Amino acid sequence: MPPEPRRLPALMALTLDGTGVAHAEQAARLCAAGVRWVQLRMKRADPGEWRREARAAVAACHRHGALLTVNDSVDVALEAGADGVHLGRHDGDWAAARARLGPRSLLGGTVNDERDARRAAGSDLDYVGIGPLRFTATKQNLSPVLGLEGIRALLPLLGGCPAWVIGGVRPSDLPAAREAGAAGVAVSSGLQAEGRVQAYLAAWDAAAALSP
Fold this sequence. Notes:
The protein is an alpha/beta fold. The chain is about 40% helix and about 15% strand. It has helices at about 25-30, 45-65, 75-80, 95-100, 115-120, 145-155, 175-180, 195-210, and strands at about 10-15, 35-40, 65-70, 85, 105-110, 125-130, 165, 185.
């Protein structure tokens, strides 16, 4: 079976298109900074480049003892030896993905509204990404912004499936996200500047220390 949900790292880092740095190198830098869960998110690559970067990113993450999940593609995840896959609302059927991945791989899905949340509750997902918390320019065709109150309303509908808040998340959001019941946060552009990984990790640890 995959790791217990509560044991998954609280900070999931997403690689980012358009930085001028290869995705595998982004993964390596994030891991060197302390990240232990990277999601490879490549929206603009051709299939060959995607597969090459995925294999290199898996190797980089595993050297650091970190997880690497692939966004959008079960095929790429399996071919690269990734630890799992994350599927958006229109990226494939969750049950079919689980059948192909087997019970040991991580499987995540995106939750944007009540319908998604109730579907996730009856699924075999290991976790969900829930949001967007606020507007973010890193995602095209952004779903309606939920805000913290919208996310707070959806969390009880997940049937216990752990949730990582996504979409413009800032370190200052982490205490409220944790208090609302989120298991962690997923961040992309917010981690690009030097020292930002440590800022998010410290903020989550501080929020944990305040929790009952």
